[in-house]
Write a structure and sequence with these properties.
Blueprint (H helix, E strand, L loop, with lengths): L18 H20 L8 H27 L7 H16 L5 H30 L10
Length: 141
């Protein structure tokens, strides 16, 4: 199966027999990334717009981290898949856009590192939960 570095496919959604759909999804992501690479250099984004997107991404990472912690502790019933997709799309968009200044590039790299660290942690938590290493206690209301 083809794997992409972007963690766009949540681990909690996988079931037996979904491999065909996942492979198609991976292939579509790969084709989209390849088309963006072939289309030439990234489009220039205004400094203000890029910084607004950076400011939007920072609290999203914290909120998503809190939502995953709530899900693991049993306070939430479903993992935050939609929120994760939104953050993944925002971060990939920021990564592909050209950075207006070195200071903005540094800020993006710091945010990207924080995002990747958390994304790896979230994926590992979901994998451990699915394999049974972590037990969730779901409170019934």
């Amino acid at each position: 199966m083809l794997r992409i570095a972007y963690h766009n496919i949540p681990m909690g959604r996988r079931r037996y027999g979904d491999d065909d759909e996942d492979e198609k999804e991976d292939l579509n992501l790969y084709k989209g990334a390849k088309q963006r690479q072939e289309s030439g250099p990234p489009k220039a984004v205004s400094s203000e717009k890029y910084e607004d997107q950076l400011e939007r991404a920072e609290p999203m990472i914290q909120q998503l981290n809190n939502l995953y912690n709530q899900f693991i502790s049993g306070a939430e019933r479903q993992p935050p898949i939609e929120r994760r997709k939104q953050l993944d799309q925002l971060m990939v968009g920021l990564q592909l856009a050209s950075k207006p200044t070195p200071a903005v590039n540094f800020r993006f790299q710091t945010l990207w590192t924080q995002y990747k660290t958390n994304a790896d942690r979230w994926d590992k938590l979901m994998l451990d939960l699915e394999s049974g290493k972590i037990k969730r206690v779901v409170e019934r209301k």
